[in-house]
Amino acid sequence: MMRSVTRADPLAAASAEPQVAPQAAPPSTSRSLPRFLIIGVLSFIVDAGTLFLTHGVLKIWLPLATTLAYGLSFVVNFGLNRRWAFGSTGALTGQAARYIALVGVNFLITLAMVNGIAALGVSYLLAKVLATAVIAGVNYLAYRNWIFR
């Protein structure tokens, strides 16, 4: 007796290896990098502007105002990079957890670089600019290849 070619073979299906959908390729650098940089500038403006508004205008205690400004900038940066720069539709919780972990690593790198470079006699502000440039490069690669994959 011949088997129909159109019928599913339960034995073949049971022994077949599971099919895994291929991961989507990251967006092109020519699209994501300029957007990443624009979002970085916008995030700084949100951070500094919120700090000015909350502390300079509303006279909120500086540590609290700084925290509020950083938090709002954090949300803007994550949200815009996730959707606009990298076009991600992946699981929000996993991406947010990776993003938070990266922020912690960024802090440690910044702390080490600013203090280390300043210890060599370089201005702490120049050290901060250098650290920020390094962090931006690391972040772009991490966002593209790890966080928003």
Number of domains: 2
- Can you give the helix content as a percent range? over 70%
> Treating each run of at least 4 consecutive H or I residues as one helix, how many helices?
5
Q: What sequence of helices (H) and strands (E) makes up the elements?
A: HHHHH
Rg over C-alpha atoms, rounded to the nearest angstrom: 23 Å
- Number of strand elements: 0
Helix/strand/pairing class, anyone?
Answer: mainly alpha
Give the integer mean of the pLDDT values. 88
End-to-end C-alpha gap: 49 Å
Instruction: Please summarize the sheet with the most strands.
Output: none
Low-confidence stretches: none
* SS strand fraction: under 5%
Shape: globular
Would you mind describing this structure in some detail?
The chain is mainly alpha-helical. The chain has 2 domains: 29-87; 90-149. It has 5 helices and no strands. Helix 4 packs antiparallel against helix 5 (124-147). The radius of gyration is 23 Å and the shape is globular. The N and C termini lie far apart (49 Å).
Brief overview:
The protein is mostly helical and 149 residues long. It has 2 domains: 29-87; 90-149. 74% of the residues lie in helices and 0% in strands.
Topology readout:
Elements: H1 10-15, H2 29-57, H3 62-85, H4 92-119, H5 124-147
Helix pairs in contact: 2-3, 4-5
Keywords, please?
about 150 residues; mainly alpha; about 75% helix; about 0% strand; globular
